[in-house]
């Protein structure tokens, strides 16, 4: 099914663990925030909170491609989703874009929450994550719009325009191709006007 508004998605989704998937710059965070605002007793859980720390990325030699699948703590992410699935209280990390680090225990998810909206790039790439979602939506955005959003975001958080463009067309675009290949695994599509 194809949705062209967040309101339509909110009217459609059942309570549970809802996955919002898309390439960098697709608008997952914005859609997730809007969806949580429309749903009763809902919480947003961003996958970005599970980025490995900068120091660990440097140690592993992966800092220059931060955002790739192997720069996340997938095991911790799965543990969080599993605890939510079993109705356990959870403290989860968020992500601070200004310092590019996770902020531990900044999201509280109680067993009384009826819906957890999980947004992230690789929800459908990692089978152990995908199987914990009740329903998934892939966010479609024209490539040029998505890339311009990313460039603007990188500049807003401190990169020069040249560095922002290089990162967007380099590591971000490599990741986007892997993420877009998972689109057929999504249950539904969200295609908002640009």
Main attributes of the structure:
single chain; 194 residues; alpha/beta; Rossmann fold; 6-stranded parallel β-sheet; two-stranded antiparallel sheet
Uncertain stretches of 5 or more adjacent residues: none
The figure for the number of domains is 1
What is the fold named in CATH at topology level?
A: Rossmann fold
Helix content: 25-40%
Number of strands: 8
Report the sheet with the most strands, covering strand number, pairing sense and barrel closure: 6 strands, parallel
Find the structural class using helix and strand composition. alpha/beta
Query: Shape, please?
Result: globular
Kindly describe this structure:
- The protein is α/β, with parallel strands linked by helices and 194 residues long.
- It contains 7 helices and 8 strands; from the N terminus they run E-H-E-H-E-H-H-E-E-E-H-E-H-H-E.
- It has helices at residues 6-12, 28-38, 54-60, 74-85, 127-130, 143-156, 161-180; strands at 2-3, 16-21, 42-46, 90-96, 101-109, 115-120, 135-139, 188-190.
- The strands form 2 sheets. The protein has a 6-stranded parallel sheet, with helices on both faces. The chain has a two-stranded antiparallel ribbon with strand order 4-5.
Concise structural overview:
39% of the residues lie in helices and 22% in strands. It has helices at residues 6-12, 28-38, 54-60, 74-85, 127-130, 143-156, 161-180, and strands at 2-3, 16-21, 42-46, 90-96, 101-109, 115-120, 135-139, 188-190. Helix 1 (6-12) crosses helix 2 and helix 6 (143-156) packs across helix 7.
Topology:
Blueprint (H helix, E strand, L loop, with lengths): L1 E2 L2 H7 L3 E6 L6 H11 L3 E5 L7 H7 L13 H12 L4 E7 L4 E9 L5 E6 L6 H4 L4 E5 L3 H14 L4 H20 L7 E3 L4
Parallel strand pairs: 1-8, 2-6, 2-7, 3-6, 7-8
Antiparallel strand pairs: 4-5
Helix pairs in contact: 1-2, 6-7
